[in-house]
Write a structure and sequence with these properties.
Blueprint lengths: L1 E2 L6 H12 L2 E6 L10 H4 L13 H8 L3 E6 L6 H13 L1 E3 L5 E3 L3 E7 L3 H6 L5 H15 L2 H4 L6 E2 L5 H18 L5 E5 L1 H10 L8 H21 L6 E8 L2 E7 L1
Parallel strand pairs: 1-6, 1-7, 2-3, 3-6, 8-9
Antiparallel strand pairs: 4-5, 9-10
Helix pairs in contact: 8-9, 8-10
Length: about 250
């Protein structure tokens, strides 16, 4: 289980793990499975019901990609019946759908994310980090039954992102944007001040780094799109992004 506040990279770590292992990445948003009837979507509808022959979303996904990283996002929102399904998977490494077909989970890494404990960790802002982690761990313990916790390999607690971590996220997102613009032969160079500006403006105490991607697209991506279409980047070039008067500045070189 990856536990911690929203926007600190729990989902991204799971995605990067699948890329590092060169296996399929499969994500399920468990907020879509809060009702009892929604559980049937994972393992298939019972005989006689519409969609019986189509199988379940989860079992079919693993049958197609037996080597996978499976992410169950916000597991605390799932219906209790899903925990029973997961107990079967963790015990026997197989899951049988309602058609009697088995999905093999022996080569699947299951990662569950939860925001449980994030509020408790944030509330203890003056205490030691160890105290914060203890409070977060206790909140996770309350959420999951002992038999469920005993089958987990571990509970990893994510802390809020600091400024240095945010700068690395800025580097990653700028590299992604540069990759998207590579066909237009556009390169991006951030000054340290611009990197710092984005790291600070893109962080929100309640949402972590989530606003950063939108900030980069609105402040840099949209601006470069206009220059590529109608301005100084029609033939590509180097963009130097700096700051002046608490705003980003752009200079262009061919």
């Amino acid at each position: 289980i990856f536990a911690g506040p929203t926007g600190v990279g729990k989902t991204e770590v799971a995605r990067q793990l699948s890329q590092a292992l060169a296996v399929h990445f499969e994500r399920f948003d468990m907020s879509e499975y809060m009702e009892k009837h929604a559980v049937a979507r994972l393992i298939g509808a019972p005989p006689g019901y519409v969609g019986f022959d189509q199988g379940g979303l989860l079992t079919e996904a693993i049958r197609k990609h037996p080597y996978s990283v499976l992410l169950l996002d916000e597991i605390e929102k799932a219906h209790m019946d899903i925990y029973s399904i997961l107990l079967q998977v963790m015990d026997h490494s197989t899951l049988t759908d309602n058609s009697g077909r088995k999905a093999d989970f022996r080569n699947v890494i299951i990662i569950m994310t939860t925001n449980a404990g994030a509020r408790e960790m944030a509330a203890n802002t003056i205490g030691f980090m160890g105290d914060k982690k203890d409070k977060g761990a206790k909140a996770v313990d309350k959420l999951f039954s002992p038999e469920f916790r005993n089958r987990l390999d571990g509970i990893i607690t994510f802390e809020p992102l600091d400024n240095e971590a945010m700068k690395r996220v800025v580097d990653k997102l700028i590299a992604e944007l540069e990759g998207q613009l590579s066909e237009k032969k556009v390169r991006i160079n951030l000054t340290p001040s611009a990197r710092e500006w984005l790291a600070k403006k893109g962080y929100d105490p309640d949402f972590g780094a989530r606003p950063l991607r939108r900030l980069i697209m609105s402040e840099i991506g949209d601006r470069l799109s206009e220059e590529i279409l109608f301005g100084q980047l029609v033939r590509g070039g180097l963009v130097k992004v700096g700051t002046k008067n608490n705003a980003l500045t752009f200079t262009y070189e061919q």
